[in-house]
Amino acid sequence: MANKSDVWQAADRDALQSWQENAAAGRPVYQIERGQMDVALLDLPRTNHAELPDGQHHHAHAAPQGLAALRLPSNSRWRRALNQGQGYTACGWIFDGDTEFDTIGMMEWIRLAPVDRAKGVVRIAEGTLVINRQGQDLSIETRPAPPLDSRIELIHSADADWNALQSALFKIRLG
Questions:
Q1: Is position 165 within any domain?
Q2: Residue 52 pLDDT greater than 70, yes or no
Q3: pLDDT of residue 149 exceeding 60
Q4: Exposed, middle or buried: residue 98 (CB in 10 Å: 0-12, 13-18, 19+)?
Q5: 165 and 93 in one domain?
Q6: Reduced to 3 states, what is the DSSP secondary structure of residue 54?
Q7: Any bridge partners for residue 8, and if so which?
Q8: Is residue 30 a contact partner of residue 58, using CB atoms and an 8 Å limit?
Q9: Rg value, the chain, Cα
């Protein structure tokens, strides 16, 4: 299935034709325009029966970045990390699994943070608070089981007073 053939350039058509001649192993190519295709094509028998190689060794798996890569050093209760890229600055915190936050305080802190985006998965008395804010759009979810650790990330298109935000964050930390 060769999608979006209605917007191809001549070079795109040439590249597809070259691929079909050199690598398609006689398999047909069906050009699809504007997402419209004959669904009967899905019922055609498979013509490529060659076993596919395990591609794991061919792919460089990106290491986690940003807050996902953040780990706590031994015996640390929390850690902060700053990151910049693509015109944004991010500040993230990770807290150990014993740190608990005030539920209402966390929702207000996320809602009022003067940043473009705020997201977090934090431990609260009720279990877990999953919170995500982009602009004025706010999504809140609670789960009964606590998370392994608490992670919060703020993202902004300009510099922010991360120290003041951290100070306010620490005031809603219960333990």
A1: yes
A2: no
A3: yes
A4: exposed
A5: yes
A6: coil
A7: none
A8: no
A9: 25
